[in-house]
Design a protein that fits this description.
The structure holds 2 protein chains of 2 kinds.
Chain A lengths: L8 H21 L7 H20 L3 H18 L7 H22 L7 H15 L2 H6 L5 H15 L2 E8 L10 H11 L1 E7 L17 E7 L4 H7 L7 E8 L2 H12 L3 H4 L1 H6 L6 H10 L4 H12 L15 H26 L6 H25 L1 E3 L1 H4 L2 H12 L3 E6 L4 E3 H22 L3 H6 L6 E10 L2 E8 L6 H10 L11 H6 L22 H10 L3 E7 L3 E9 L4 E9 L2 E6 L3 E5 L6 E3 L5 E5 L2 E7 H4 L13 E7 L2 E7 L1 E9 L13 E6 L5 E5 L1 H8 L3 H8 L7
Parallel strand pairs in A: 6-8, 13-22, 17-19
Antiparallel strand pairs in A: 1-3, 1-4, 2-3, 5-7, 8-9, 9-11, 10-11, 12-13, 12-20, 14-18, 15-16, 16-17, 18-19, 21-22
Helix pairs in contact in A: 1-2, 1-4, 2-3, 3-4, 3-5, 4-5, 15-16, 18-19, 19-23
Chain B lengths: L7 H17 L4 E7 L2 E6 L3 E6 L13 E7 L2 E7 H4 L12 E9 L2 E9 L1 E7 L5 E2 L13 E6 L4 E5 L1 H4 L11 H4 L3
Parallel strand pairs in B: 2-11, 5-7
Antiparallel strand pairs in B: 1-2, 1-8, 3-6, 4-5, 6-7, 9-10, 10-11
Classes of the chains: A alpha+beta, B alpha+beta.
């Protein structure tokens, strides 16, 4: 046995997480009064494969726990038991519990957690109440009844004799008798006896064939079906007999008597080693020669006892085969272009110039396509993030006594993995917010003439190179008077000011702004919408809210498709070229006399329609030599960042291009006002500006913005 | 000595020497170079390559000894002028100005940085017998950057601890480094 199973652990963990997700979503789809057998089967299958996997890898904690879950599921599946909302809740808790255990295992820790024991006790409790519901149900068929009877009879049996004679091919199909025996050993005391009579002459032996068959004695209070389950995968490839033994003492005695004189048979696991190709030759000789092969066995045991601790933190993504295929195609084309250009270069003359240009064209096209496909590999459907919400909504609406339906649209919209990982928390916050503050209690809804059931819609779609995610609720909407009162109290707005609706709504993204009357379990714990906005801004995205009082609110998040590439606008100040993220630019204008006002002791302000926008001079805040001094001679780029508008004064605008973001921190450190660097076409490095950093550097105060945002323009 | 020619062939020769030193001997080998007539040495194992000076992109509000960042085969690498770091008047850069690209340990990561020096000298061997501890001058903490003083037959080399020297802790004033050593 020289296979180190720990190399497959990661795969098992990932599969288990997926299985748990599948269980969770199926459970949420389950209607207790109208059970779809296929859904139950799906849950059962997921639980079963987690159990099988954890058994194989020796994670007995998980296997034991999943076993009871599976038992109950099996009874539901066979119609023996009805599903109730109580059991659904129990299953959901178990999913959490198993996930927790697997996370612990994943982190290389032990998976013993107290809640597993509590839940297990609950299961045993339910399972014990076996008779009552089944006898109460009168529509049980006679078949099922007999089945219950027989399985009940089975469970009285304490000892089982199992004859297991696999076909020669059993190992080639990936089955491992040793694993099955180990699983059996978990059920109770197990004695294994190998029958070597089928083993041929050593000269004719096929190292991959399984010549052995086994007699097993299992002392355990289990049903026949749970033994059969162990052999489930090989049932078609073996002769299997399972018979109950009534007199336990006789059996054990007989077994010890039989096995003693024959040392080879005493160590069944050593015999099991025999068919393994790698250690094969050695152990075969041992078996034939009647020598004890204890060392091999110990080796195996040791290996399992000390699993590989050196855990490498690698996150992986699953990529559709079509994406990989298209990548391979493109690399193929690239190779062809490269060889064509190579040939052209070896023997070049001027008359072949058009050919060269054509080749270079082709090369640039190949490169672009290749870049796009590689980016696509990082893209995952947003359902990965959305999938956690049904559960969240289910649990929260229950605890708040609200009736909520969650709709999800555009789940297949693709998004970069990094963006996806970082958008999860803000989304959870927004959904909780809608649940808690948006949707009203059922009675209030009825009073307002709305349906009792509130709707929260999650919608995702692509729009001009960015992804838009909306959280829409049909609840109460934002209360403008309440927001204004609060804003006046916090000094954000002067008393008596009237602001347009959008600006009032926007106030909820200000720090320290919560209109919740009371602190509930869900929100109002100090993490406000300002954090949501900051997190989204960090991803170069934006968030806005629209709301109609009494009809609901819509939060709209806009995000770039990827973090690795950015659409940039090159700007020039003196000798320096910087890049502004295109997404943050609102407009670029040339200013004329009278548009710019100088505030004494403050910065210049640009009068832009009804607003006054502070002007930031890069030459001042970066301490560089400016090219153009007078604002009238240059350009003003109006950008939005950190929830406010500023105008950046530049000499000139240059090209717009996609740039690959490189980290400046990797070899240097964080620089204020700069979010990263990139390499331009000519090989030089150019810095990418960070708008909120620039605003901080320039020291433009928020209260200044407040002044200018009021219509009368007192700031000027 | 500062006018030592460092043309392409010379660079290739020194790069070759470095490679050889890295692959063959784990001993105390130092790449030595000149900054304002003084000879300094850095552990050869921390040297990645030597290249000619090329204009760097300035970093806003960086200390004056940080000349900016360059593109080193796709990575963004900061360039530090050792003359300015030591508080000496800066040279005008020319095509013979040399940048030593070094790997610096910062925490558990490795950063790549370039240091501008007047000229690269050679690869020398120092064993413990000819390395002396730097004299401790209590009023000057800059000696922390000096690993020791290596002596050859004709001269003395100040051996620098590159990790301490290039740690981004800029508050330390290094202008006294030369006074710290008995030049």
């Amino acid at each position: 046995m020289s296979i180190d199973l720990s190399q497959f652990h990661q795969v098992f963990f990932e599969e288990s997480y997926e299985g748990l997700d599948a269980m969770e979503s199926a459970l949420l789809n389950l209607q207790p009064d109208n059970v779809d057998p296929e859904t139950v089967n799906e849950i059962f299958r997921a639980a079963h494969s987690i159990k099988g996997g954890s058994g194989t890898f020796g994670f007995s904690g998980v296997a034991d726990f999943t076993h009871v879950v599976e038992t109950l599921l099996d009874e539901i599946r066979s119609g023996k038991r009805k599903i109730t909302s109580e059991t659904v809740d129990l299953f959901l808790k178990s999913v959490d519990c198993i996930r927790r255990m697997i996370q612990l295992l994943d982190a290389g820790k032990s998976c013993d957690i107290p809640e597993a024991k509590t839940l297990k006790a609950q299961y045993e409790d339910i399972l014990e109440r076996d008779e009552e519901p089944s006898s109460a149900t009168d529509n049980i068929s006679s078949d099922t009844a007999t089945m219950i009877a027989s399985s009940d009879a089975d469970s009285l049996v304490k000892k089982w004799r199992i004859g297991f004679k696999p076909e020669l091919d059993v190992l080639r199909t990936g089955n491992d008798p040793l694993r099955m025996f180990r699983e059996l050993a978990e059920l109770g005391a197990l004695q294994v006896k190998a029958d070597v009579s089928r083993v041929p002459q050593i000269s004719t032996i096929d190292p991959e064939a399984c010549y052995l068959s086994w007699q097993l004695e299992l002392c355990a209070d289990v049903s026949k079906s749970s033994i059969e389950e162990v052999f489930e995968w090989v049932i078609d490839e073996c002769e299997l007999t399972i018979e109950p033994l009534t007199d336990a003492n006789n059996v054990t005695e007989a077994l010890t008597e039989k096995s003693e004189p024959v040392p080879t048979q005493k160590v069944p696991e050593s015999a099991l080693n025999e068919p393994e190709p790698l250690t094969g030759s050695k152990t075969i000789v041992s078996v034939v020669g009647g020598v004890d092969v204890e060392p091999g066995v110990r080796n195996l045991v040791e290996k399992q006892a000390t699993p590989d601790k050196s855990k490498v933190e690698v996150s992986s993504i699953r990529v559709g085969i079509d994406k990989v295929d298209s990548l391979i195609n493109m690399v193929g084309e690239l190779v062809i272009t490269q060889s064509m250009l190579g040939e052209l270069g070896r023997d070049f003359s001027m008359e072949r110039l058009p050919k060269l240009l054509e080749g270079l064209d082709q090369l640039s096209q190949n490169t672009r396509e290749l870049q796009e496909s590689v980016m696509r590999i990082r893209m995952l459907p947003i359902s990965f993030t959305f999938s956690r919400f049904p559960r969240l909504v289910h649990d929260l609406s229950r605890s708040m006594g609200k009736k909520i339906e969650l709709k999800m649209l555009g789940e297949q919209t693709e998004l970069d993995k990094t963006v996806m990982e970082r958008i999860g928390d803000p989304l959870v916050h927004l959904v909780r917010n809608s649940l808690d503050h948006g949707i009203e209690q059922p009675e209030d809804r009825l009073k307002a003439g709305k349906s009792e059931v509130g709707t929260i819609t999650l919608n995702a779609f692509h729009q001009s190179g960015s992804i838009v995610i909306q959280i829409i609720d049909d609840g109460a909407g934002l209360n403008k008077t309440k927001i204004m009162d609060k804003a006046v109290k916090n000094g954000l707005v002067a008393e008596g000011d009237s602001l347009p609706d959008e600006q009032i709504h926007d106030l909820i993204f200000k720090p320290g702004f919560s209109t919740a009357d009371h602190i509930s379990e869900l929100s109002g714990r100090g993490v406000g919408m300002d954090v949501v906005r900051r997190n989204i801004n960090e991803l170069n995205g934006s968030v806005e809210v629209e709301s109609v009082e009494g009809q609901g609110s819509t939060f709209t998040i806009r995000l770039p498709l990827t973090l690795a590439i950015l659409d940039g606008q090159l700007i020039r100040v003196g000798d320096h070229v910087y890049i502004l993220p295109l997404i943050s630019i609102i407009e670029s204008i040339q200013s004329f006399q009278g548009m710019v006002h100088r505030v004494v002791g403050g910065c210049d302000l640009l009068r832009l329609r009804n607003e006054y926008v502070p002007i930031i001079r890069l030459s001042d805040i970066f301490n560089i030599k400016p090219g153009v001094q007078e604002i009238e001679d240059g350009l003003l780029v109006v950008v939005e960042g950190d929830n406010m508008k500023v105008a950046i004064f530049v000499d000139d605008l240059e090209a717009q291009q996609q740039v690959v973001i490189k980290s400046l921190e990797e070899n240097y450190k964080k620089v204020d006002g700069v979010s990263g660097a990139t390499i331009l076409g000519d090989g030089t490095v150019s810095l990418i500006l960070d708008i909120s950093g620039l605003i901080k550097l320039a020291g433009v105060q928020r209260n200044e913005y407040k002044l200018v945002s009021s219509d009368d323009g007192r700031a000027a | 000595m500062t006018e030592k020619k460092t043309d392409a062939a010379e660079l290739a020769r020194i790069n070759g020497e470095i490679e050889e030193a890295i692959t063959h001997e784990p001993s105390e080998q130092y790449l030595t170079f000149y900054v304002d007539k003084e000879e300094y040495g850095v552990d050869i194992l921390s040297v990645q390559e030597i290249r000619g000076w090329e204009p760097a992109t300035a970093i806003p509000n960086a200390p004056d000894y940080v000349k900016g960042v360059i593109n080193l085969r796709g990575t963004v690498v900061p360039i530090i002028d050792l003359r300015r770091r030591f508080g000496i008047k800066q040279f005008d850069y020319s095509s013979v100005t040399v940048v030593i690209v070094v790997k610096v340990k910062a925490g558990n990561r490795e950063k790549v940085m370039g240091i501008v020096v007047d000229a690269v000298s050679e690869v020398s061997n120092f064993d413990h017998s000819n390395i002396q501890a730097a004299p401790e001058l209590t009023d000057n903490k800059n000696t922390a950057f000096v690993k020791g003083l290596g002596s050859t037959e004709e001269s003395m080399v100040i051996l620098l601890d590159i990790n301490k020297l290039l740690s981004t802790d800029e508050d330390l004033d290094l202008s006294g480094i030369r006074q710290a050593t008995p030049a």
